[in-house]
Amino acid sequence: MALDAATRRHNSKLAAKRGTHRKDAGGHTAPLSTRAAAQRLLILGAGKKDKFGTAELRKLAGTAVRTLKSKQVKRLAFFVRDGDRSAEAAQAVVEGLILANFDSDKYKTDKKPGNEITAAAITGWEESSRGDADRGLERGRTLGESQNFARELGNEPANYLTPRMLASRAEAMAREAGLSVGNFGREKDRSTQDGSFAFRGAG
């Protein structure tokens, strides 16, 4: 991603004035030239370089999503700097983006619809390392969507998500992912040591 001269000067002044400290968690947005495909550039503090790893990269991607959602931005491209362009980095970025975009206010009365990122991309990899990015992207997407699926189930009220419905949701997800599912049934569950689902479902 090439930045025009005006944007580079703006960023240099910002770095000299504020640095890139972790306290700049809210980030700073800078306008880009009309020639650029993107309209704004979000700059976030990532902390000390020697303590920066994939966990911090995942958090940084999440912070970017939450910041941009608050500004009603719908699309973003996350640029990974040179030296961090690995399959693990791609996985961390994608996982962070997906987790931060999760809608947790499904049952809120004051829910504000449409406040989510609808499209995201990661960039920075050369064509020769595209395979690493694709592998990391796919794994990150699988992990992120799996966690969000579990979070969605956890947010459902107990009087709505009965054991039978939970099993049905799990079966549907498994079929979509090409997985096989085994259902023990009520009698099999009672024969196990805990029988938690059978007794919970019975009230």
Description:
Residues about 20-25 have low confidence and may be disordered. About 50% of the residues lie in helices and about 10% in strands. The strands form two sheets. A two-stranded antiparallel sheet has the order 1-2. A two-stranded parallel sheet has the order 3-4. The chain has a domain at about 45-105 and about 115-155: Leucine Aminopeptidase, subunit E, domain 1. The chain is globular and about 65 Å long. It has helices spanning about 5-20, 55-70, 85-100, 130-155, 165-175, 185-190, 195-200; strands at about 30, 40-45, 75-80, 120-125. By secondary structure, it is mainly α.
Defining key terms:
Leucine Aminopeptidase, subunit E, domain 1; single chain; 203 residues; 49% helix; two-stranded parallel sheet
The helicity comes to 40-55%
CATH architecture of one domain: 3-Layer(aba) Sandwich
What structural class do helix, strand and pairing data support?
mainly alpha
Average of pLDDT: 77
- 3D shape: globular
Specify the biggest β-sheet: 2 strands, antiparallel
Q: What is the percentage of strand-forming residues?
A: 5-15%
E-strand count: 4
